[in-house]
Amino acid sequence: MVYLTRRERFNAAHKLWVEDWSEEKNVAFFGKCSNRNWHGHNYELFVTVKGEPDPVTGFVMDVKQLSKLIQSEITDKVDHSNLNLDVGFIPKGMQPTTENLAILFWKQLEPHIEGCQLHCIKLCETENIYVEYYGG
Amino acid sequence: MVYLTRRERFNAAHKLWVEDWSEEKNVAFFGKCSNRNWHGHNYELFVTVKGEPDPVTGFVMDVKQLSKLIQSEITDKVDHSNLNLDVGFIPKGMQPTTENLAILFWKQLEPHIEGCQLHCIKLCETENIYVEYYGG
Amino acid sequence: MVYLTRRERFNAAHKLWVEDWSEEKNVAFFGKCSNRNWHGHNYELFVTVKGEPDPVTGFVMDVKQLSKLIQSEITDKVDHSNLNLDVGFIPKGMQPTTENLAILFWKQLEPHIEGCQLHCIKLCETENIYVEYYGG
Amino acid sequence: MVYLTRRERFNAAHKLWVEDWSEEKNVAFFGKCSNRNWHGHNYELFVTVKGEPDPVTGFVMDVKQLSKLIQSEITDKVDHSNLNLDVGFIPKGMQPTTENLAILFWKQLEPHIEGCQLHCIKLCETENIYVEYYGG
Amino acid sequence: MVYLTRRERFNAAHKLWVEDWSEEKNVAFFGKCSNRNWHGHNYELFVTVKGEPDPVTGFVMDVKQLSKLIQSEITDKVDHSNLNLDVGFIPKGMQPTTENLAILFWKQLEPHIEGCQLHCIKLCETENIYVEYYGG
Amino acid sequence: MVYLTRRERFNAAHKLWVEDWSEEKNVAFFGKCSNRNWHGHNYELFVTVKGEPDPVTGFVMDVKQLSKLIQSEITDKVDHSNLNLDVGFIPKGMQPTTENLAILFWKQLEPHIEGCQLHCIKLCETENIYVEYYGG
């Protein structure tokens, strides 16, 4: 079993804001991340698949195909977007935290991986913060 | 003459949109950067000052003071902000491009540098794009 | 289960030196790391916690709280310190190797993590060397 | 159990080309990687071993010895080489993909690790692509 | 005057070998870089242009256009190539050193920059080695 | 004229402390950097030389020779050292600030550069702080 990882990147705006909470509670809990006029990030996304390398080609998966899948299923839909407003696969009202995004990206990508298995979604929000999700 | 550089970081939302242009023209010129619902970046800011090291302390400038100045004059005002809407020192209608931000950051910081000279503002928008401004 | 990681940094001096060994044996075993006048590093510390994201906030843990905990329990105590002499939670005579530091940092932090679980302490000594400790 | 990682680097040329396939099929499958005149990469290799830190030295393994082993068994043999032509431990006809290289590097290094266990070979081909192999 | 930089990347094979020299002299002078079967690198290319930001758009130059120019004039021609054999604009017999490549890339790109000026070609061969060329 | 840069690295301990000042004044001015038991850093050193590439070899300078010079004249003397106590070319009582180190490194290296000219010493103390010195 070999694990193969491809990095893609996207830039997006978001805010963290619970609709059922008062402004005071939102600001107290989320701090600067609750700015009503949004802020944004350069996200780095690492997608890892696992499988046996093909005995002829030496590939677990064609990494160019993996890149295209990540783009068509995830980054084309979130790049230069507002994560609270613009993205069909992010449920309205769900906080676009790095944690929730990683889970949603898994659901978005997993049905399209063929011939090997999705292993991990790693999403970096800043150079100091990242999350990893392994499904299940 | 020695050049001393301090890095600070901030995260912000923006869009590129000329009010006098039609939506078609904005989208044709600015592409995805014109998304009306904003997008955002992790910006890296490098501020360089120049001067002679003090013969006793060996400092061109106290880098902790430089850091505090950059924070009070620039990053406290732009971090987790919307660069088109929230920042007093960015004129309304001026495009918040990396180029214009570098010039505005220079103007913001230069009057506060004492005992040495501001030399360069370098602002990185992504790992692939940055600008440098040397004043004048 | 989602894994959330926060990076913090600190700078410290140390040396590797077994008191029961002769100088010759120390130098032979630890090489330049045994310099009696110390040397030092910029350490990078990655702390990973794991848990279910809260259904309302989307947080495994408030990453600002995690950052504060790492600072109060670890980095405030080791930053700009001498790891052999200055740090209360490092037993006298224990080598301040990256391996031992990672284990001690785990013990230092683990009792303070609430609402989720500490998963990993990763400590980077240089760009070429790092260790990971998962407890137990 | 603590995991200790050492990074080494090497630069090499290769191409991906299945001898039993026509040129058309090779180009269609491998794209630019099939250029008959070769291309190349700066590879980054991360080797992770695991074990208990020695109670006296605090070492899982002497990282300088680990570095020397990686050099003598792997990087001295692949640095500034042509991976298809020059390396004795890469079977002729096996594609020098990142996946296959990671497995071969494991086999090359594993018999020489004493006092602890080899845990992972991580090999980065570009900043966007890497593989990990854990043996077995 | 503002300086705007765009990074692009490419992977290529090369060797350093003076045809008029004996094999011994080549190996003595160029060391491992003279391997007859080639080696290769992940090159990072930083192109800097300078000019006044447009008062309406805030652009020194459209960085997407700059990216396309770098690709069409340089990286499409050198990516996944053999720099000694495959690239029309590298004179046969000229050593494909980082120095010479930077000068050739300047000549390749400079005639196509309009509305501002080419300022610098920076080319990184490894994380430890890079060159800069400012024309003239 | 082409500019060629080589990176080398070293790890060292130091403190900032003016002997003629009281402990209070030292702590007030230098903060945590005045810890009497030292602290330390992973320093990154970038040395830039400039010249015309040789028409036959394409080299401004043999970068392996530049690396050896930097090691013999600088990094072999400061690596794993205490910059206040152990280094012959650092005058006693001179603060080992990044600024002063850059100037001293220039003086140490400049007489040994032949066939081209030393252009810049860049020294990074942390990922957030660096200095540059161009001589004179």
Structure, described:
Six copies of one chain form a homohexamer. The first copy, chain A, is of the alpha+beta class. Chain A has a single domain (2-133), classed as Tetrahydropterin Synthase, Chain A, CATH 3.30.479. The first copy, chain A, has three helices and five strands; from the N terminus they run βαβαβαββ. Chain A has helices at residues 23-30, 63-78, 98-109, and strands spanning 2-14, 39-51, 81-82, 117-126, 129-133. A five-stranded mixed β-sheet of chain A has the order 3-1-2-4-5. In chain A, strand 4 (117-126) and strand 5 form a beta hairpin. The two termini of chain A are 20 Å apart. At the A-B interface, strand 1, strand 2 and strand 3 of A face strand 1, strand 2 and strand 3 of B. Strand 1 of chain A pairs antiparallel with strand 5 (129-133) of chain D.
Q: What is the domain total for the residues of chain A?
A: 1
Our measurement of the CA-to-CA distance between the termini of chain A, rounded to an integer number of angstroms, reads: 20 Å
SSE run of chain A: EHEHEHEE
- In the CATH hierarchy, the third-tier topology of chain A is known as Tetrahydropterin Synthase, Chain A
Largest contact between chains: A-B, 22 and 22 residues
Give the CATH superfamily of chain A.
6-pyruvoyl tetrahydropterin synthase/QueD
Q: If strands are numbered along the chain, what order do they take across the biggest sheet of chain A?
A: 3-1-2-4-5
Query: How does the major sheet of chain A shape up?
Result: 5 strands, mixed
Proportion of residues in extended strands of chain A: 25-35%
CATH class of chain A: Alpha Beta
Low-confidence stretches of chain A: none
Secondary-structure arrangement, i.e. CATH architecture of chain A: 2-Layer Sandwich
In total, the number of strands of chain A is: 5
Shape of chain A: elongated
Total helices of chain A: the number is: 3
Give the overall average pLDDT of chain A.
97
The oligomerization state is: homohexamer
